[in-house]
Write a structure and sequence with these properties.
The chain is an alpha/beta fold and 192 residues long. The chain is 39% helix and 23% strand.
């Protein structure tokens, strides 16, 4: 799924041709990628940036596509799914939180997702690119989530400072929206 998502993201970039790709080659270059993004924005040379990196309060995000139009910035996050899930909205809300708090004012944020015409096995199509994707603004929905995101950031940072695992029993929440990487650790801790 992740490989498919990356391929769909690369094709979606063609909706906004002529941009600069600032994707870091490794996690050790994340900080440098954020600085490169800031320098690129300040230079004014590019109106389209792929994989723009932003950091605020030690929180890091990489946005799929950032577009400047009429001196305003528009954010686009690409998903290979055929619909917008609650998880995607939370992801966009978190990205909006970090980007706007880092100093970039966004006029809008949208999710680009696959239309029924997109063939995952053959991303090269005779159909116009605009028919393969649906672009939907989620700004109103994620503005409503900003207070929750701020509170969640505080809780998650507090959890990182704990000296032992949180006292939370395993259960269905360990698999939503994705399986937790720590499930094995937590389930072993409960059996002791």
């Amino acid at each position: 799924k992740f490989k498919r998502g990356h391929k769909v993201g690369e094709v979606a970039q063609l909706l906004f041709p002529g941009g600069i790709n600032l994707k870091p080659r490794s996690p050790s270059l994340y900080q440098k990628a954020v600085m490169h993004t800031n320098q690129t924005i300040e230079s004014g040379k590019y109106d389209i940036i792929y994989e723009a990196g932003f950091m605020y309060d030690r929180l890091l995000v990489f946005l799929d596509i950032l577009v400047r139009e009429n001196n305003s910035w528009y954010a686009f996050e690409v998903k290979s799914s055929r619909k917008i899930s609650d998880t995607f909205l939370l992801d966009a809300a978190f990205q909006y939180y970090v980007i706007t708090n880092s100093g970039i004012k966004l006029a809008d944020i949208s999710i680009i997702y696959a239309s029924e015409d997109l063939d995952y096995d053959n991303l090269v199509s005779d159909k116009p690119l605009e028919e393969l994707f649906i672009t939907e603004s989620v700004l109103e929905k994620i503005l409503e989530l900003q207070d929750d995101i701020s509170e969640q950031v505080i809780r998650q940072k507090a959890a990182l400072l704990l000296t032992k695992s949180p006292d939370i029993s395993t259960g269905p929440h360990c698999f939503e929206p994705y399986p937790c990487d720590f499930y094995g650790h937590c389930s072993n801790s409960e059996s002791r």
